[in-house]
Amino acid sequence: MGTPRLHVSDLLLAALICAGSLVIARAALDTALALPQLSAGALA
Fold first, then answer.
1. pLDDT digits (tens, 9 = 90+) for 5-23
2. What is the DSSP string of 1-44?
C-alpha cells in the first residue's frame, strides 16, 4: 500500500531521542531538588 514502513534505524533514533530527553529531564529535576540544599549549605 502507500503506507511508509518504519525501519529499525528510525525506531532506534526515536528511542535515543526519548532516552535523551528522559535523562535531561531527570538531571534538571535532580538539579532543582539539590539547589535549596546547596544554597542552604552555602549560607550556613
1. 778 999 999 999 999 999 9
2. --PPPPPHHHHHHHHHHHHHHHHHHHHHHHHHHHHHHHHHHHH-
Could you tell me the pTM of the whole model? Answer: 0.58
**Distance in angstroms (rounded) separating the CA atoms of residues 44 and 39:** 9
The whole-angstrom distance between residue 35's C-alpha and the CA centroid of its chain comes to 19
Question: Which grid cell sits at 37?
Answer: 540544599
Residue 6 to residue 14: CA distance in whole angstroms: 11
